[in-house]
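Explain this one:

_____
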Amino acid sequence: MQIVNFVLLIVILNSILYRPIREAIKRRMEKFKQDQDEITRLKTEAEEKLRAFQMAIEEAKKKGMEQREALRQEAKAEEKTLLEGVYKEVEEQLAQVKEQISKDMEQVKAKLQGEAKKFAFEIAEKILGRPVSDEQKG
């Protein structure tokens, strides 16, 4: 009787208590495994996104450096062009100034030669004490 009672108790406990507990533990283990798989998947996905983000940052830096260098080269070329223009303009102005100075010197030289002759005759008249004739001036 006790054995039957014991077997009956085991069968009842198994169907009422142990089986639901085992199923709950089994579902919990499956859920745990699914959560672990999801964590692994999300971690891998996050690492891939991080690598892609870092690559994008590196690419952006590289493009920025290239653009900076291109702008620097462009500015250098523009500076060279501007300087060449300024040098050319300065040279033209210098040539004009030299030409103007040369013309002014010729005018002053001609004027001084005329005045030098006049002064020479005036000095001669003062030294001689008499007027010098137009024939002698000519």
